[in-house]
Amino acid sequence: MQGGWVEFKLWLSNCYGSNWKTIPMLAKLPEVNWGRLVHAYGAADDVPGLIRGLASSRPKWRRKAMQELYVNIWHQGTVYEATGYAVPFLIGLLEAEVVQDKPEILMLLSEIARGNSYHEVHQHGFLKEQAQTPEWQGAIRKELVWVRAAKEAVLAGKPIYLKLLAHPEMKVRESAPYLLACLPRESVGMADELWKRLHEEREPQVRASLILAIGVITTDRNLAEQQFEQLLLDERDPVVRLAVAMSLMRLTGGKMREDVVVILLEAIANPELVSKEFGKSPWADAGNIEAQVSEYLSLLTGEAAGRAVPLLAKALASADAYSALSITSAMLSLAFERKPMPKDTRVNELSERQRLVLASILQSDTAWICNGNMSDILRGYGVPSWRNKLEIFLKTEDGDRSSFHSSGTPT
User: Fold this and answer.
1) Which residues contact 383 (CB under 8 A, 6 or more apart)?
2) What is the pLDDT of residue 264?
3) By the number of CB atoms within 10 A of the CB, which of 5, 297, 368, 392 ranks highest?
4) Is 75 strand, coil or helix?
5) CA distance 334 to 240
6) Model confidence over 299-327: pLDDT tens digits?
7) What share of the chain is helix, strand, coil (3-state, %, to 5)?
8) pTM more than 0.85
């Protein structure tokens, strides 16, 4: 948090003009004792001013307020005591016509709906021993109460999100299905509403979002599969067809449908055909279509997996650091059939596909920018988890991994 924010927040709370004063829900902000609630950086007394900031007519103020909410009531995937109290006011902003940036508010609510406890997330890795203490476990129990409260608060807005499926702004209609798919699974009854909207919607990007949401929440998998198969026959838009292929892959658990495999492989081989539209979708992984599609390709087996690996290796060579993590994970899954490499494996015992995957990872500079995350992924597959050790392993044709600890860290 920057020091200049304190003054900015105080000014922001009182000087935005009339927009927030016209929203009935925001009049209730003082009824919450924000100073007694906590978020990622302590007392949450800055939250009401930031929520009012989202209703500003000034884009800069809205952007600043949203950025700050993304680091305090939701922080890198974790939520806090103040989060659940803030959610009803965020939902109130969605109902107000004067409020702009509704897609951004929907995305913040989506992240909150998937939020976790800070101490639960950080109980692994180098904090493993500390996490066994009664204090740490007590913190997890307390934070899980906050997590449940935040998720229930987001769930309470479901009627509003369903209404926004027909909003005149395309980006709102595209973001609402994503949020609905992030809700707790007891909300699966809304699939019928999404199908209804799909039949009425004409915008390809929105149709793709509705299809992906249906693939996540439907309870009638057989019916959904049949309807998606028909869509593949009728639909010509490449973004919509890609969404159908992804949903079919999800619903069938990776069943080898050649038409679906071809669509997914085409998206990796020629991402420019869909990246312009799909890259801006809430479903896109940091805007990188290759990273998103790679998660579905990781379900492939046999000959189809063999076709996917070279394309993923090519995508990895030009991927950004964040996308490289998803692509690497998918490549390892395909190469090692979702199982760790046996402990005493020698390089000359690797298959050609496995060698290609490990060599591609080694050669990718961006893959090692987030080296801690990359090491975790490699360690999960029993692969030397540091670049220099992976290089030594691959160059030692008759050697094994005796120079590594069982954890994969260098000796």
Assistant:
1) 332, 341, 358, 390, 408
2) 94
3) 297
4) strand
5) 26
6) 998 889 999 999 999 999 988 898 899 99
7) 70, 5, 30
8) yes
